[in-house]
């Protein structure tokens, strides 16, 4: 029984723009656009360096129906490098790159030798043979259409003929609140065929759901937005197999950019210039923790500002953001400040205000009531149900920009209202 390694990756979303960001400088936009392709090149090199027996790609190589030519050619060129090195690749398509929707630049017979692209429908099974010995048997199935809600895991055949079996599937296992429930299944569904490893796609964070057998989400190759699920190291998984048993599951970061949040308490910072300096130091600390990767930074100002801050002045926070961008324009690795959120609070005794029989007191009490049971975002009733399921999931915050935090927005609104109202009372 040979020992070997293989590489598991998913959710590449190649050559697509980052989501949820404000307007970026042209050179930043180009770098972000190229980040996923750099990560792909890194994946190919990792497979070569690790001398893996095969690579499995568990769906969402591309991001949508357009499937740009540049992305498809980059994939083909990378797979050709693997093929020339004797490394096979086994590919399934997911909800973002379903086979029957969208444009394909490469014909089914146009892929390099050793590349298997699984069709939709029945599960495809392929044996991987090295030096005359079978090292593994792979099983996989692609999505025909984006909105695939059938339990595809139940189509997989039982392991037969001995050896190490790998299932490759783009699916929702159990409850995954940040992702639309495509091809939903359970761990019991995945245990039933008797495979040694399930290479999953769809969830963008690296997760080991079980170890008997191993059920693993590799996570995405490159984070694509400031959402919490898109932060942190992104990459692929190297799996080591000895005597038909998994003995190593190693997540290897391959991303070119990361998203970081920095918080600064301004209570003891004397003025706005010092706030800029403090934020830049926080940016330096974030950069030191991320090696040579580019950074997209968001900052939050908290605490009670002193008289020299004047952060509530119209345009003050925008000017602060512009100063940060100017200061870091030539930073290498590239560093981009996407947003500064002012969540500072004026020196207000909120508890005392809540006890007043006044408009301000009523406002504070009303906010407390709302905070106990935050309202849903103020959008037309039933509007999500009228949309395609994938689009609805993405608007909920499962892929792109619409992800309101009602509690945070509520407190921000209250802080602004109280600062304005108490300032008005003080001046009258």
Question: What is the secondary structure topology, with strand pairs?
Answer:
Blueprint: E1 4-9, H1 26-49, E2 54-58, H2 69-84, E3 88-92, E4 115-117, E5 124-130, E6 133-140, E7 165-170, H3 187-191, E8 197-201, E9 207-211, E10 214-217, E11 235-242, E12 245-253, E13 257-265, H4 272-288, E14 294-302, H5 316-327, E15 335-342, H6 350-354, H7 359-372, H8 389-398, H9 406-427
Parallel strand pairs: 1-2, 2-3, 3-4, 6-7, 7-8, 8-10, 13-14, 14-15
Antiparallel strand pairs: 1-11, 5-6, 9-10, 11-12
Helix pairs in contact: 1-2, 4-5, 7-9
Q: Strand order across the biggest sheet?
A: 4-3-2-1-11-12
Largest sheet: 6 strands, mixed
Q: What is the SS-derived class?
A: alpha/beta
User: Please, what is the oligomeric state?
Assistant: single chain
The CATH superfamily of the largest domain turns out to be Metallo-dependent phosphatases
The helix count comes to 9
Annotation, overall tally of beta strands? 15
- Please identify, by name, the CATH architecture of the largest domain: 4-Layer Sandwich
CATH topology of the largest domain: Purple Acid Phosphatase, chain A, domain 2
CATH class of the largest domain: Alpha Beta
Mean pLDDT, rounded to whole units?
A: 86
- Overall structural domain count: 3
Series of secondary-structure elements, N-terminal to C-terminal: EHEHEEEEEHEEEEEEHEHEHHHH
Approximately how much helix is present in the residues? Answer: 25-40%
Radius of gyration: 25 Å
How far apart the termini lie comes to 86 Å
Strand residues, percent: 15-25%
Overall shape: it is: elongated
* Unreliable residue runs: 381-403
């Amino acid at each position: 029984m040979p020992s070997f390694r293989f590489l598991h990756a998913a959710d590449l979303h190649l050559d697509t723009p980052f989501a949820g960001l404000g307007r970026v400088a042209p050179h930043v936009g180009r770098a972000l656009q190229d980040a996923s392709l750099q990560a792909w090149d890194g994946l190919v090199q990792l497979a070569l360096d690790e001398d893996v027996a095969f690579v499995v790609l568990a769906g969402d190589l591309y991001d949508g129906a357009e499937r740009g030519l540049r992305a498809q050619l980059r994939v083909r060129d990378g797979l050709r490098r693997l093929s020339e090195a004797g490394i096979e690749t086994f590919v399934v398509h997911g909800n973002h790159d379903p086979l029957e929707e969208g444009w394909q630049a490469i014909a089914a017979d146009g892929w390099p030798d050793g590349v298997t692209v699984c069709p939709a429908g029945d599960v495809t099974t392929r044996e991987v043979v090295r030096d005359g010995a079978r090292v593994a048997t792979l099983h996989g199935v692609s999505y025909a259409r984006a909105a695939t809600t059938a339990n595809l895991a139940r189509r997989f055949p039982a392991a037969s003929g001995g050896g190490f079996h790998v299932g490759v599937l783009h699916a929702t296992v159990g409850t995954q609140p940040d992702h639309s429930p495509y091809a939903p299944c359970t761990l019991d569904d995945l245990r039933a065929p008797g495979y040694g490893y399930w290479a999953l796609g769809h969830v963008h964070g690296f997760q080991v759901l079980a170890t008997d057998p191993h059920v693993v989400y590799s996570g995405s190759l490159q984070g694509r937005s400031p959402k919490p699920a898109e932060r942190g190291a992104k990459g692929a998984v190297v799996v080591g197999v000895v005597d038909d048993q998994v003995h190593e599951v190693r997540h290897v970061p391959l991303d070119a950019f990361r998203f970081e949040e920095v918080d600064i308490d301004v209570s003891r910072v004397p003025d706005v210039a010092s706030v800029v300096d403090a934020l830049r130091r926080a940016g330096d600390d974030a950069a030191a923790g991320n090696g040579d990767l580019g950074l997209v930074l968001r900052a939050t100002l908290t605490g009670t500002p002193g008289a020299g801050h004047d952060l509530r002045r119209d345009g003050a926070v925008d000017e602060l953001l512009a100063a940060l961008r100017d200061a870091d324009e030539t930073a290498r690795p590239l560093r981009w400040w996407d947003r500064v959120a002012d969540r500072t609070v004026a020196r207000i005794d909120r508890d005392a205000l809540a006890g007043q029989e006044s408009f301000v007191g009523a406002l504070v009490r009303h906010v407390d009531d709302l905070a106990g049971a935050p309202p849903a975002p103020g959008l037309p009733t039933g509007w999500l149900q009228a949309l395609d399921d994938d689009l609805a999931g993405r608007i909920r915050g499962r892929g792109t920009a619409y992800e309101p935090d009602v509690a945070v927005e509520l407190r921000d609104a209250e802080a602004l209202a109280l600062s304005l109202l108490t300032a008005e009372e003080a001046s009258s």
